[in-house]
Specification:
The complex is a heterodimer of chains A (294) and B (545). With 294 residues, chain A is α/β, with parallel strands linked by helices. Chain A is built from five helices and eleven strands. Chain A has a six-stranded mixed β-sheet, with no helix packed on it. Chain A has a five-stranded mixed β-sheet with strand order 5-11-10-7-8. The radius of gyration of chain A is 26 Å and the shape is elongated. A two-stranded antiparallel ribbon of chain B has the order 1-2. Classes of the chains: A alpha/beta (294), B mainly alpha (545). Bound molecules: protoporphyrin IX containing FE and copper (II) ion (CU) (2 copies).
């Protein structure tokens, strides 16, 4: 009897874990992946989705089983079993979530670090990731030093570390300095300014494969810059500049959405980001740069 | 500490009959029911506002109400549901009704303060929902009232909102002080802390959170009102203010607030499950420790609402870890409840169905909560419909389901009559289906690009929004069997007797409804509130399934 129970339990657990892993890896709930952040994000999503499915299904099954198996039949006036607790059991179900949480925490820390989230923001946040990638004393990319050394209050500073993951040969772009873009958010629009070419645009245009550093400020209230296909979001705050570094990996046009309530037209505060092939991007720049008399 | 002498309650000076529910009654049972009915009224108000929101979102363009109105409706909905329905009901209503019974007292420690705390709520609520009449506009900056937006929207409406929330916060603090004093000081001689029903522990923990965090909310809202009225610059970046500091102070209250909304529900479920499963509550001691663990951790996780604000990397990391660890004590509670059911004699009545609905919904919301706690995950879904889905699974699927379970469980105590089970099960079925239909699709919407707090959206999301709105409609319909049940039963329901569930907790050891000072004689000493399964049941009066 004991053995049969143990075998049943083991089989059930295996089936449950298998289902969870299958669901996590097969069911995709996310939009297309278009930046270097997206692949690590999506693998984190898969892991969490698998764990979540296992936990939820497990509890659902135990609950339904109990409700059916232990339901009170009409006329039955007997009591349940007088079990008040079971210390070993309680230790087990304290330990299991603790271990799962620890694993999830370490794993998501790693993902976050690889996204460049742990890079220091004070130096424009550019070196940390670059060093991760090479491990050698690689030359600092000539990043845009934050103009006038003003304080950056938050964001994701580094884009470099994940370049080798794009898998389409563009990883060589590591040495390419990031393209600086100044983002101004206001009720109810984003304005993108390219200091290098003096272009000002209502749409964001970026070349595929090259790091882009958005330096963001709000003119009136708090807004947020969100591109679902990039899996990235950063609040744009009046009085407190923030940065967001990213590298697009898939040409196309994606929505830029304001994700912080900013007034009556908040829902309409959206524009697009156009990810170009490098040569198309150059063409766009030449076409749109104001004519500078040389 | 001086506590009221129960004999000083002057019951003779109180009106009797139904009129006493409209009086400044000092009887904790009257006050409890006042909280319940008042809360339910505001639930209907908040529900109507939700109906406006879901109607607007049936189509992707802003066509049902104006954009300003939409933001007002959204703000009022959140504020009403949190501060006028969930918090007062799950704390004030059941806390006041049950805690004196559980500690073996004749009333709360400070009956007058108790009545004051209740009577602050109706004026505050009416103030809030009439802000259109009073100020020409209601607050439009969400229930979070982030500056600078809250400094730029119509000032009068925002000030009315602040005033109302301050009153409600004050009421909550008064209530909490009373619960702490009652549990610690009014226990019947011989009753030990570790013999208290679990709801007492839940209310003790919750009240500690209220007392520690609500004053911070009051402080930050007062500063915000200075910025609006006197043009000070605490949170105005143009005057050198810092908008992120507001967010820290706001969430220092408002994350604990989510535990103020669920810990009492955890307590209520811990009372309901053993009775209808005929088994002792599994793991009493670990339950107590996990409540206190949640209280402690709940105080140090607030910045997980600010992962995309201007927060430095180390802060994001710390709050990820602290938040994730709340899952451990929370998980313990769920495993203990499942173990309570295991091997029981489970009556599948309305109270049990709603409790089990709570378990499922909350587990789901807890799992999405853990995903949100991971900074890299949250960066994508913060401020999207994914979050809307998450917290409705917690507050509605969790707490509101428990409130309904509690209503079916204690209604016979309140009135001496049993609610109709057929209507009750219909109510459960409609609520469960409507709720999941309404909020499950929202997770997908958020993941795929729909931000929250919008009146218009990408037409690609139309179908799922319509599914969600149909779910909301079913939820609205689900209140009909409930209302019918409550009214019809009050008039001519099946008499319940004093203890229809054969329960062992003290509130069932007196008549239904109980006399003014709770007991006909001495308060009984209940050393084993969950001592089910020991003796053969003293002939279960209730034999229906
Ligand atoms: C398992 C435990 C829980 C965890 C780990 C958790 C985690 C989180 C996180 C990280 C967020 C922020 C998401 C974002 O805005 O980007 C959030 C939002 C929220 N949670 Fe939870 N949560 C849990 C339980 C609860 C409970 C118990 C409640 C309430 C009763 C609740 C209600 C809310 C609400 C209202 C919000 C949205 C707040 C807003 O931005 O307006 N959560 N939760
Ligand atoms: Cu916005
Ligand atoms: Cu929180």
């Amino acid at each position: 009897m004991q053995i049969r129970t143990a075998i049943t339990a083991a089989l059930a657990t295996t089936a449950l874990v298998g289902t969870g892993l299958l669901v996590g890896s097969r069911v995709s709930l996310l939009p297309v992946a278009a930046s270097t952040n997206a692949p690590p994000y999506d693998s984190l999503f898969q892991v969490l989705f698998s764990i979540g499915t296992i936990l939820f299904l497990g509890i659902l099954i135990v609950l339904l089983y109990s409700l059916i198996r232990f339901r009170r039949r009409p006329g039955d006036v007997a009591e349940g079993l007088p079990i008040e607790g079971n210390l070993p059991l309680e230790i087990v179900w304290t330990a299991i979530p603790a271990v799962v949480i620890l694993f999830v925490g370490i794993y998501s820390y790693d993902i976050y670090d690889r996204m460049g989230g742990m890079a220091s923001l004070d130096h424009g946040g550019m070196h940390h990731g670059a060093m991760d990638l090479s491990g050698m004393d690689q030359v600092q990319p000539a990043s845009t030093p934050p103009s006038s050394g003003e304080r950056i209050w938050g964001g994701i500073g580094s884009t470099q570390a994940y370049l080798d993951q794009t898998g389409d040969g563009r990883a060589v772009a590591t040495a390419v300095p990031p393209l600086p873009v100044e983002v101004t958010a206001m009720q109810f629009a984003f304005i993108f300014h390219y200091p290098d070419s003096a272009i000002t645009s209502g749409e964001l245009h970026v070349p595929v494969g090259q790091p882009v550093q958005l330096r963001m400020q709000a003119r009136d209230v708090i807004h947020a810059f969100w591109v679902p296909e990039f899996r990235l979001k950063q609040d744009v705050i009046p009085g407190q500049p923030t940065v967001l570094s990213l590298t697009a990996t898939r040409p196309g046009t994606y929505p830029v959405i304001c994700a912080e309530l900013c007034g009556p037209y908040h829902g309409g505060m959206r524009t697009s980001v156009v990810v170009h092939e490098p040569e198309d991007f150059l063409a766009w720049v030449t076409q749109n740069a104001p004519q500078v008399s040389a | 500490m001086t506590v009221a002498d129960p004999s000083a309650l002057e019951p003779r000076l109180q009106p009797s009959g139904w009129l006493r529910y409209f009086s400044f009654s000092l009887d904790h049972k009257v006050i409890g029911l006042q909280y319940l009915v008042c809360g339910f009224f505001f639930y209907l108000v908040g529900g109507a506002l939700a109906g406006v929101i879901r109607t607007e979102l049936v189509s992707p363009i802003a066509d049902f109400v104006s954009r300003d109105t939409y933001n007002e409706v959204l703000t009022l909905h959140g504020t009403v549901m949190i501060f006028l329905w969930i918090v007062p009901v799950v704390n004030g209503a059941f806390g006041n009704y049950l805690i004196p019974f559980y500690v073996g007292a004749r009333d709360m420690a400070f009956p007058r303060l108790n009545a004051v705390a209740f009577w602050m709520i109706p004026p505050a609520g009416l103030l809030l929902i009439s802000s259109y009449l009073l100020a020409g506009a209601a607050a439009q900056s969400g229930w979070t009232a982030y500056p600078p937006l809250s400094l730029t929207t119509p000032a009068a409406g925002q000030v009315v909102w602040i005033l109302s929330v301050l009153l409600l916060g004050g009421s909550s603090i008064f209530g909490a002080v009373n619960f702490i004093a009652t549990v610690l000081k009014l226990r019947r001689p011989g009753l030990k802390m570790m013999q208290l029903p679990m709801y007492c522990w839940a209310m003790l923990g919750t009240s500690l959170l209220v007392v520690l965090s609500t004053p911070v909310l009051a402080g930050v809202l007062i500063l915000l009102s200075f910025d609006i009225i006197a043009h000070t610059g605490f949170f105005n970046p143009e005057l050198g203010g810092n908008v992120v500091v507001y967010q820290h102070l706001f969430w220092f209250y408002s994350h604990p607030a989510v535990y103020i909304m669920v810990l009492p529900a955890f307590g209520l479920v811990s009372e309901i499950l053993p009775v209808h499963a005929r088994k002792p509550l599994f793991g009493y001691t670990t339950m107590v420790y996990s409540i206190m663990g949640i209280v402690f951790l709940g105080l140090i996780v607030w910045a997980h609402h600010m992962f995309t604000s201007g927060t430095p990397p180390w802060m994001r990391l710390f709050f990820t870890i602290a938040t994730s660890f709340i899952a451990v004590p929370t998980g313990i509670k769920f495993f203990n409840w499942l173990a309570t059911l295991w091997g029981g004699k489970i009556a599948l009545n309305s109270a049990m169905l709603f409790s089990c609905g709570f378990i499922l919904n909350f587990v789901f919301g807890g799992i999405t909560g853990i995903t949100l706690a991971q900074v890299p995950f949250d960066i994508h879904v913060h401020d999207t419909y994914y979050v809307v889905g998450h917290f409705h699974y917690i507050v509605y699927g969790g707490t509101v389901f428990v409130i309904f379970a509690a209503l079916y469980h204690w209604y016979p105590k309140f009135t001496g009559r049993l609610l109709n089970e057929d209507l009750g099960r219909l109510h459960f079925l409609l609520t469960f289906i409507g709720f999941n239909l309404c909020f499950l699709p929202q997770h997908w919407l958020g993941l795929n690009g729909m931000p929250r707090r919008v009146a218009e959206y990408d037409p690609a999301f139309t179908t799922l929004n319509q599914v969600s709105s149909v779910g909301a409609l079913i939820m609205a319909v689900s209140t009909l069997p409930l209302l019918l049940n409550v009214v019809v039963t009050a008039l001519r329901g099946q008499p319940a007797g004093d203890n229809p569930w054969n329960a062992l907790t003290p509130e069932w050891l007196t008549s239904s409804p109980p006399p003014v000072e709770n007991w006909h004689g001495e308060a009984p000493l209940v050393a084993e509130p969950y001592g089910y399964g020991h003796a053969p049941a003293p002939a279960l009066a209730e034999t229906r399934p």
